[in-house]
Amino acid sequence: MSSVDIELIKKIAIGAAQQILKVYNSEDFAVETKEDSSPLTKADRLSNDYIVKELQENYADIPIVSEENEAVDYEVRKKYTRFWLVDPLDGTKEFVKKNGEFTVNIALIEQGSPILGVIHIPVSGKTYWAQLNEGAYCEGEDGVQKLCCEEFKMSDENLSVVCSRSNLNEETKEYIAKLNNPQTLAKGSSLKFMLLAEGEAHLYPRLSPVMEWDIAAADIILREAGGRTVCVSNNQDIVYNNGQDMRIPSFIAYAKKMINP
Ligand SMILES: Nc1ncnc2c1ncn2[C@@H]1O[C@H](COP(=O)(O)O)[C@@H](OP(=O)(O)O)[C@H]1O
Ligand SMILES: [Mg+2]
């Protein structure tokens, strides 16, 4: 099996962002609606084409599952020991609203867990990355920084809680309302996890569905920064590529949660 070069994956994410920004900065772009009612633009397609081509050229032996590729049948997919899991433009609704809250996400999944993740924010130019047991990092205007989550207890007052800007449901609102005077911040895309990884927020409860590609890169980056993402149903790590559809019904992402309540 070929080994993977994280520097190359970071370059691929940045190259994909250039494709996205060509569309973002153009006067006007068409917005189509997919079968699941979510939006699709030329930027999603250009970013996907770029990432898929680069990954195939450099890692011919590692299959790719991407939001914008044709779905891979579970009977085929369940035999994968390693695969790329890609969301070429996470936060398409935010892209359409032109608020900058969208990301490029590339993860490498091995035996059901992410072992590498790269997230790039096209508008700010910031890149986040992590590999299993090697820590999490980001690079922006201030150079490279090691990411480290803030410690907290669930009973703390004024916890900083991030939630979806465009997909916030009643169940999540009720969960947040039970906390002790929470300070809520709405953001689009996997950026929410990055706020936890940077020590800027404590909790990201998501009691509504996402797809595996929305969170795989963020999951490993947050974990390597000292946090954790768990399924609500069993309070365990998310197991990827574990069923017919790649839907995760709900999860809670934590910064560094202390055991005492
Ligand atoms: N009902 C649903 N089922 C599955 N995924 C959903 C969903 N509603 C929203 N999502 C996912 O939530 C992502 C947006 O996250 P957020 O709400 O945190 O900004 C979308 O990513 P895309 O923008 O890549 O389609 C989409 O995959
Ligand atoms: Mg997405």
Mean pLDDT: 96
Q: Could you state the CATH homologous superfamily of the largest domain?
A: Fructose-1,6-Bisphosphatase, subunit A, domain 1
CATH architecture of the largest domain: 2-Layer Sandwich
Number of domains: 2
Residues in β-strands, percent? 25-35%
Oligomeric composition of the shown chains: single chain
Distance between the termini: 44 Å
Ligand names: adenosine-3'-5'-diphosphate, magnesium ion
Largest sheet: 7 strands, mixed
What percent of residues adopt helix (DSSP H or I)? 25-40%
Which spans have pLDDT < 50 for at least 5 consecutive residues? none
CATH class assignment of the largest domain: Alpha Beta
Give the class from helix and strand content and strand pairing: alpha+beta
Shape, please? globular
H/E element string? HEEHEHEHEEEEEEEHEHEEHEEEE
Strand runs, count: 18
The CATH topology of the largest domain turns out to be: Fructose-1,6-Bisphosphatase, Chain A, domain 1
Please give the radius of gyration in angstroms.
17 Å
